[in-house]
Structure formats: C-alpha cells, structure tokens
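Data availability (excerpt). All sequences and predicted token strings are deposited with the supplementary files. A representative entry, UDP-rhamnose:rhamnosyltransferase 1, is shown inline so that the format can be inspected without opening the archive.
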Amino acid sequence: MAESRIHVMMLPWSAFGHLIPFFKLSIALAKAGVRVSCISTPRNIQRLPKLPSNLVPLVHFVQLPLPSFDQELLPDGAEATLDVPFEKVEYLKVAYDKLQHGVKQLVANELPDWIICDFNQHWMGEISQEFQVKLIRYSVLSAVGNTFMVPPSTRKGPLLPESLTVPPEWVTFPTSVAFKRNEAIAFCAAADQVNASGITDFERLEKQAPKSVVFVVFGSECELSKDQVFELAFGLEESELPFLWALRKPRWASNDEDSLPVGFSERIPERGFVCMEWVPQLEILAHPSIGVSFTHSGWSSVVETLQFGHNLVVLPFNIDQPLIARFLVEKGLAIEVNRDENGSFTRNDIATSLRQAMVSEEAAKLRIKTGEVAAIAGNLKLHQDHYIGAFVQFLRDGIWKQT
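Structure token line:
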C-alpha cells in the first residue's frame, strides 16, 4: 500500500497568506493518504502551526535557506513578506528565485507524482517539463480576483485603470463587482511595475453577550499608516461596541503604546481590548461572543469568518481585496466601509459600518445570509470527504470527474 501512495511536492510563496493555505491543503491531502513534501525556508517552517501527530509520517517539511543578500535590501532573518516593508518585497522575490536550483535538485531526487506551486515560481514549468512531473498552480486568491488577472500575452493593449472599473467582457452574468478608479490605478501600477524581482483574551470574551463583539483583524501583511490606524481606533471607540483588535505593532511605531492614540486604552477599558501579539484567529472566530468580523477582506480571513456565520465589515486595501469586498456586498454578506474618491475613510465611516453590521435591521438580514453560507463553508466533513476526495482521485488517475 505504501508503494502506491501518491507523493505531492508543495511550493508556496513566502507570505503567510499563502503559506497557511498550502499548509492546510497539505493536512487535507495527508488525511486522504497522500504523502506531502512542503518546501519553504527554515524560519517560515518554524513559524507554521504544529502538525497533528498522526499526520507527521505523511507531511515532510523541506528547509531551503535563502541565499545571502545585500543587508540594506534584505536584512538577515527576513524570509517572509511580513518581515520586510512593502517596498522591499521585490528583493525577497529576487532571493526566492535563487531557490530554483535547490528545488530542481529536490525534484530530481524525489521525482514526485505532482508539484503544486504558487503564483510566482515562473521557473517551475521548466523544471516540471524536464523531469516529466505534472504541475498544478494553486491560487490562494478568490475566484473573483482571478477573473481580473489575465496573462499579459492575452491583453489587447496595456493594462489601463478604466478596464478594471467595469466587469471583464468574459463575465457573462450580471454583476457590478469591479475596482474603484483609485484602486484600479494602484493595481495597474503594481501589476506592470518592473521590479528587482491561546491568549487570555478569551477571559474577556467570556464576559460578553453572544454575537456582540467585533473581531478586528487586518492580516500580518496589511501595512496601515499612522493616520489609518488612528482613524480605525477612533472609529471603534465611536461605535460604542465591544471589540477585540489583533494589531501587530506598525513599523512606524517605536513601541506598543505608540501604535494607538493617546488615552485610547484608558477610554475603552471594559469594552475593548487591543492585542499586540499573535492571536489564534480561528479559535477567536469560533467563540460565541463574536458577532462581526472587521477585516481587509483577504480571502483566507473571509473564508474563516464565514465558517462561523459571522457578519462582515470590510475595508479593502490592495490586490484582489476590493473585488472580494464588492462580491461580498453583492451577495448580501458584508458591509463595505465608505471611502472618498481618493480612498480615504473617516472614523464616522468606521463606526457607522460597524453598527450597521451589528445592531441594525440590515444586520439581521446579513445574519440570515451568512448563516446559509456557514452551512457550506463550515462543513469540514463535506470539504474533506467530497472536495478533497475528488481532488485526490484526480491526482490518482489524472481525470477530473464531475460529482
């Protein structure tokens, strides 16, 4: 039996919004009897959650150290996007590309049945062809985000912001999901740029009424300015709702106290709590006191929220986040925070949206919709037995069967 076991090699990009979905897929495949080799850098692997003990024999983490790099461009220990400011991510990509030789050697030695890679291993196709190993690209982006992201070779001309402010011509069903002009301008600039290429918070939650707390989380790679963080803080204060805010110390702050407006913590001692350390997001979302998730609309955060049927308030910033936000609003699952034409928002916009999602008549309508989605998104048996089962069958015979 062991001889016929499928071997899959996983190669995620060095961002935890990618590493975690690949990690979860590794676990799901291992539960179905697939042998998995997951490749990343030493520090990234150390920062992943622990594997369930029964799956340790099936999931092997392969450490490939990043090559040395100019310290001014990429400091020692910087192995993931959360370790560097946004403007230095391009140098992380350059360093990551230098893993190509090590990956090629691993493929040559292991000859896996399949390789599952991320969006930016542009050299993986050549390796898979050389060793005749089948290749799958796993996109951690939402389907709505991928809809707007076509290869440059298929474009009729340069990528223009105007083309992103309406649904693409190949979308044949009615929808209004698209970028706003300021978002489209930022997206085009990034897309075509030539670059270098278990906490005590639960005790607080226990004291709150069911479905009454706002969980605020903007992801480890969403870098907010001082004005934006302060406006969020004032908006939470103005909302008068209980909240738990997972806030990583911003790069512009010299210490934790610097990260928030003066006197903020003293003004919300019983109602709100700011955690400046890592938080177990899934465990918090599972707590009965949580009623609303306030997020940047990153796809992983959205899916985790909807597993528990919580209403969403979304404040998107980049990449496909604006599209996900519009999609959620269109489906009646979220409230999007209002912004000016230049993309700015106010504390009043924050407070209004939070109260709308928690205590208004619209909140009740949202809960009906999010509850319906939770019946599917939260059905882990359905995901493992049906979807993962079908995928593993495809890995075995190479034929996708509609079920």
